[in-house]
Amino acid sequence: MIRNIVLFRLKPEARTEQLQAIERAMKAIRFDGCRRWELVSDLGLREGNLTHAFISEFDDEDAYRAYDAHAEHNRLRRELLAPIVDRLERFQYKTW
After folding, report:
1. 78: domain CATH number?
2. What is the DSSP letter of 47?
3. For a disulfide at 64, which of 2, 54, 75, 78, Cβ 3.0-4.6 Å?
4. What's the predicted TM-score (pTM) here?
């Protein structure tokens, strides 16, 4: 299984409604081989943390790559997420 973690910090002017729209739009897409997907907010227990994370799990590398290349997913990244994100980091790894 492949776990994908995307950590990001919102711009100060980002609105809660914008993040909620992204979450709704992502949940509306069915990605083959995606076992789990969630959007979570940082608890703010440590100063300097990024504010949010997308965490997803895929059956295998092919399923992850299909998700990463999905046209609607990329449109949402470009049109909804990119305008409100200050910083974004990605990390994928194999789980057992």
Report:
1. 3.30.70.100
2. T
3. 2
4. 0.89
